[in-house]
């Protein structure tokens, strides 16, 4: 069931979303060669708890950490650990969900570590642009398929692979609510957007083929051809006239 949020709920989600934005701004300077994904995770957990909020991913269906830290060919759901230390030329996606007074904010960004090659620069640039092409379609009366189609059309026109097994989603009291928001689809199909709906749009694109596999930890999703992947996500409120990004970039 797709829920329409009340003004009170929207205000709580604005606060949760802003905490997500502030956490991304906080962690960015630490994303350097030599730091482990475990250290990044602990820094962010401390930041979240100091702001009277909850790291929603930690413990979700057994996930052991605050962040998903996905490096290079990891598409999503990379588990932070002490062995994985960032190297010059890596890219890493930081994906976090923060709960505040029972409501959630969710955003992911892919970051460069030092100097990255042109392949990764291209992937990052056009994955982020694909996200905003999807966001442009958010307004009352449009449908989920309009968002999905816009993301897919932009991604494929730039020769990037669109991961189909994973998708965006509604969000509110729960991290994942209806509706699903795929990154591929047909215009004028799917649920119609209404003011008060809150959704997460999150292109997960690959530099090579779109095929993926899940590692033995049952979480980490990687590209089958080991080519790099990028992932950008915003939490979006449908307003009376269009949209509001609840997780704005602060950098």
Total helical segments: 4
Radius of gyration: 17 Å
Biggest beta-sheet profile: 5 strands, antiparallel
Largest sheet, spatial ordering of strands: 8-7-9-14-15
Number of strands: 15
Shape: globular
Q: What is the helical fraction, as a range of percent?
A: 25-40%
| Averaged pLDDT | 98
Content of β-strand: 25-35%
- What CATH first level would be assigned? Alpha Beta
Order of helices and strands: HHEEEEEHHEEEEEEEEEE
Based on secondary structure, the structural category is alpha+beta
Task: Please report the distance between the alpha carbons of the first and last residues.
Answer: 35 Å
Which stretches of 5+ consecutive residues score pLDDT under 50?
none
Explain this structure.
With 251 residues, this protein is of the alpha+beta class. The protein has a single domain (7-239), classed as Creatine Amidinohydrolase (Alpha-Beta Complex). It is built from four helices and 15 strands. The chain has helices spanning 7-27, 37-50, 118-135, 144-157, and strands at 54-55, 68-71, 74-76, 91-100, 103-112, 161-162, 168-170, 177-181, 198-201, 204-206, 212-214, 221-223, 229-231, 234-238, 243-245. The strands form four sheets. It has a five-stranded antiparallel sheet. Strands 1, 2, 4 and 5 form a four-stranded antiparallel sheet that branches. Strands 3-12-11 form a three-stranded antiparallel sheet, with no helix packed on it. Strand 11 (212-214) and strand 12 (221-223) form a beta hairpin. Helix 1 (7-27) crosses helix 2 (37-50) and helix 3 (118-135) runs antiparallel to helix 4. It is globular and about 45 Å long. The termini are far apart. The mean pLDDT is 98.
């Amino acid at each position: 069931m797709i829920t329409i949020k009340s003004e009170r709920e929207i205000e709580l989600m604005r606060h949760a979303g802003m905490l997500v934005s502030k956490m991304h701004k906080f962690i960015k300077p630490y994303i350097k060669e030599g730091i482990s994904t475990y250290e990044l995770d602990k820094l962010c957990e401390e930041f979240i708890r100091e702001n009277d909020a909850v790291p929603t991913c930690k413990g979700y269906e057994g996930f052991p950490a605050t962040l998903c830290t996905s490096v290079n060919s990891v598409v999503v759901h990379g588990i932070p650990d002490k062995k994985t230390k960032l190297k010059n030329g890596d890219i890493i996606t930081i994906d976090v969900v923060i709960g505040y007074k029972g409501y959630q904010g969710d955003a992911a960004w892919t970051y460069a570590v030092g100097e990255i090659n042109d392949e990764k620069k291209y992937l990052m640039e056009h994955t982020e642009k694909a996200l905003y092409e999807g966001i442009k379609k958010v307004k009352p009366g449009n449908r989920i398929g309009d968002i999905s189609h816009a993301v897919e059309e932009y991604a494929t026109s730039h020769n990037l692979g669109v991961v189909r097994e994973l998708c965006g989603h509604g969000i509110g009291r729960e991290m994942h609510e209806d509706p699903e928001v795929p990154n591929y689809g047909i215009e004028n199909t799917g649920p119609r957007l209404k003011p008060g709906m809150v959704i997460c749009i999150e292109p997960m694109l690959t530099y090579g083929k779109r095929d993926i596999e899940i590692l033995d930890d049952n979480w980490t999703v990687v590209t089958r051809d080991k080519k790099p992947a990028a992932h950008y996500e915003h939490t979006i409120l449908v307003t009376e006239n269009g949209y509001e990004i609840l997780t704005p970039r602060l950098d």
